[in-house]
Every structure is written in C-alpha cells, then in structure tokens.
Specification:
Helix content is 60%, strand content 5%. The chain is mainly alpha-helical. The C terminus is likely disordered.
C-alpha cells in the first residue's frame, strides 16, 4: 500500500494529536487547537480514526490533522506521520523527498510541556496513593518517610492535575512555567523508585527459584 493507505489504516487521529501535545480529559475531550476554544469541544476516543470539533466543525483523520496543525500538504503530512510512527510503505521508483521539518511554534512547545507535566504528575499521584496505602503507620512512632511524603503532597498534586484537565489556558500555562524543571526532578524520583522496585522483585524471584 502507498503512504496514504498505510497511515489511514494504522494511525488514529488521537495518536497524532497526543504526539502534538494535545491533552485529553477523562471524557476523551480536548480543547480544539483550530479555534479559540474556551471549553473542551473536540472529542476523540483512543481508537477513533477521525476527529470532530463540536465548536467550529473542524473534522478529519490523522493526515488532515497533521496537515492543518503543521501547515503541511496532505502528502507531506502522510509522510511525516509514517516517518514518526515507523511505518513502511510502497514508494515510487524514486524515493519522494522527506517533508521539511518545521521549527516548533511556542504554542506547540507549550502543548508538549503540558502533556509531559500531566503525565509525570499523574505517575507521581498514583505512586503517592500507593505509598499512602502501603505505608500507613500502625502507630505515630513509626511513620515511614514515603507515607509522610504522600500525605503532604497528594492534595497539591491532585489540585495540579485538576488545573491541567479543567483549568483555563492561562492557569495551565502558569502552572507549567511555575513547575519548570521540577517536573524532571519528579520524573527522576518516580523512575528511580520503579527501578529499585524492579531490582527488589527480581531478587525475590531469584530467591524463590533457589529455594525450589
């Protein structure tokens, strides 16, 4: 199949939108990037091949979105998607030129920062909930540091996630800028804990195998 057929068959609209930094709420709604959307007017489920905005009527598939969002021709948009998602396709005798990579706009950079911030805070939130549940002290004399961190930070992180989901664009932008590199620190902390947990679980498995 050619690049258009391959992309249309294998890539959803939701996938390219999330790659562009579009954030979706729990109802699979997002703010439309093609008009001044004050509320989340565009609905795209993870498996949807097409998108539709109830506010401005903008609609299309993955190729349409990338073409409109990055100001590319349909062919260049399809080729960019194929390149980013590692999709092989039948080409003509001469390989068509790859689409020109355009510099990201400040809006796109901010959108990607919001997506990363939400992902990191969401991971941290679930980790804190786990610590709150697993390390709840039996007495005030034996409080685990992880439980203490969970109790202190859970309300704040939950509030930050609510802002990223339901806040105004100004509130989201302010939150992302205020957190800044702190997001990277949180991400490292979460990843470090998960790596340590993986090592512990691996050692436990080896111990069990040795016993048997």
């Amino acid at each position: 199949m050619g690049v258009f057929d391959e992309v249309k068959e294998r890539v959803t609209a939701r996938a390219v939108m999330e790659r562009a930094g579009i954030v979706f709420n729990r109802s699979n709604m997002c703010r439309c990037p093609f008009h001044q959307d004050k509320t989340a007017s565009m609905k795209v489920k993870p498996t949807d091949k097409k998108y539709f905005c109830f506010g401005c009527g903008e609609k299309g598939d993955a190729i349409d979105f990338v073409g409109r969002y990055y100001n590319l021709s349909p062919k260049d948009a399809a080729m960019q998607i194929a390149d980013e998602f590692g999709i092989a396709y039948d080409s003509s005798v001469r390989s068509p030129p790859k689409p020109v990579r355009r510099e990201k706009s400040p809006m796109q950079i901010l959108a990607e920062a919001k997506t990363k911030t939400y992902r990191v805070l969401s991971d941290y939130f679930h980790l804190l909930k786990k610590w709150e549940r697993n390390f709840k002290p039996k007495s005030m004399d034996e409080i685990d540091a992880r439980y203490e961190e969970a109790v202190q930070n859970l309300p704040k992180v939950e509030c930050q996630l609510d802002i990223l989901l339901w806040g105004t664009e100004e509130e989201k932008e302010m939150l992302v800028r205020d957190l800044g590199k702190g997001v990277e620190d949180i991400e490292r902390r979460v990843n470090e804990y998960l790596r340590n947990q993986g090592t512990v679980n691996h050692n436990r498995q080896r111990s069990c195998e040795a016993v048997h």
